[in-house]
Structures are given as structure tokens and as C-alpha cells.
Amino acid sequence: MKIILNQDVVNLGEEGDVVVVKDGYARNYLLPNNMAVMFTKTNQAIFASRTAAIEKRKVEKRAASASLKEKLDKVVLTMVVSAGESGKLFGSVTSSMVQEGLAKQGLEVERKKIEVATHAIKMVGTYSVRIRLYEDESAEVKLVVESESTVKARQAAEAKAAAEAAKAAAKAEAEAAKAAATAAAAAEVAATEEVTE
């Protein structure tokens, strides 16, 4: 069946493209969801009159895609998940989890555009996640998967080190105060000896 796309459809085409698809795909999915219209002379004329607006939107989408690519390529996403001692996760890291992590950093990406390697990540480590953008453009996001137990142990060690540093600083401050008090007392003794002489 020949149709005209009303919007961009992944792996099919962009808004305004004339494509041929299977009848069932058009009747059961594209047409009911208003993603496409039947190819007729009337619809073709309507889209021909909207060509300039469609091209303008394509240029805007390309520009938005380029700026999003710059931001995504710089992102290092860290996920803390529960895992066993061997590093195997209890569950897996999926594209929806990656989407949530990016949203927390202020980057909105559709879940279906996120391609997680081997579909789901099941071990701790560093991974590269591909995100499809407009047309053939894509971005790579560095994903670091850490175990909750490792992170908690590291935080405990950091807290202990901070406590020891604070204790050492307090001890040094007390010693400095003691030294200052001793120096003040010595100066006072020296001053009283001068007065008595």
C-alpha cells in the first residue's frame, strides 16, 4: 500500500515521504495512529503545499540533533545497582534505566532510540551506549555500572578517612592552642621578671 507519512517513523521514513508498506502495517498501525495518510492526488497536493514547512522542521531537527549529540558525547552516566560478589547484577541495566539516568541530568531522549549493547547489561563495568538521533546521526554515552556494596564500602572508607582527618586537625589545633598558651605564659613570666628587676 502506498502512503504519505505524517511524521517521522523510525526505519521507514520522514514526514512527507511517500513509501510503500504492507497493507496490514498501514491499516492496523500507521493510519489509525495518524502517522500516515493514504496516497491520493488530494493528499499529495496537500503535502506539496506544505513542503516548505516540512523542510524548515527538518533543518530544525538536524540542528537540535547536532546540539544534543555534543551534550551526549560528553556524558558519563553512573548507575549503582545491586550485584553479587562476582560482579553479576541482580537483574540488568536496560534502556529505560538509561533514559531515567539521562533525564536526571536534564537530557530528554526517547527510550526506543537508546541501544543498549547486547540488549541488557548484566555485569558491573564500563559500557558504551549508542543513542540514535535524527537521520543517520548517533551519539555514544559512557555508562559506568557499579555494585551497591562497592559504593557503600567506598563511602564508608571516605567517611572514616574524613573522620580521621577531622580528628587529626582537632588534635593539631589543641596542640597549637597549648603551645600558644605556653608561649603566653612564658611571655608573662618574662614580663614579670623584667618588672621585678
Structural class: alpha+beta
Q: What is the count of helical runs?
A: 5
Beta percentage is: 15-25%
CATH topology description of the domain at 69-150: Ribosomal Protein L9, domain 2
Helix content: 40-55%
Largest sheet: 4 strands, mixed
Summarize the structure.
It contains five helices and nine strands, in the order ββαβααββαββββα. The chain has helices spanning 23-30, 41-49, 51-74, 95-104, 148-196; strands at residues 2-5, 18-20, 36-38, 76-81, 88-93, 114-115, 121-123, 125-132, 138-147.
Which features does this protein show?
3-stranded antiparallel sheet; single chain; alpha+beta; Ribosomal Protein L9, domain 1; 51% helix; 5 helices
What topology does this entry show?
Elements: E1 2-5, E2 18-20, H1 23-30, E3 36-38, H2 41-49, H3 51-74, E4 76-81, E5 88-93, H4 95-104, E6 114-115, E7 121-123, E8 125-132, E9 138-147, H5 148-196
Overview of this structure, please?
With 197 residues, this protein is α+β, with helices and mostly antiparallel strands. Among the domains are: 2-49, Ribosomal Protein L9, domain 1 (3-Layer(aba) Sandwich); 69-150, Ribosomal protein L9, C-terminal domain (Ribosomal Protein L9, domain 2). The protein is built from five helices and nine strands; from the N terminus they run ββαβααββαββββα. The strands form three sheets. Strands 4-9-8-6 form a four-stranded mixed β-sheet. Strands 2-1-3 form a three-stranded antiparallel β-sheet, covered by helices on one side. The protein has a two-stranded antiparallel ribbon with strand order 5-7. The longest helix is centred in the C-terminal third of the chain and has 49 residues, at 148-196. The protein is elongated, with a radius of gyration of 32 Å. The relative contact order is 0.09. The model has no long low-confidence stretch (mean pLDDT 82).
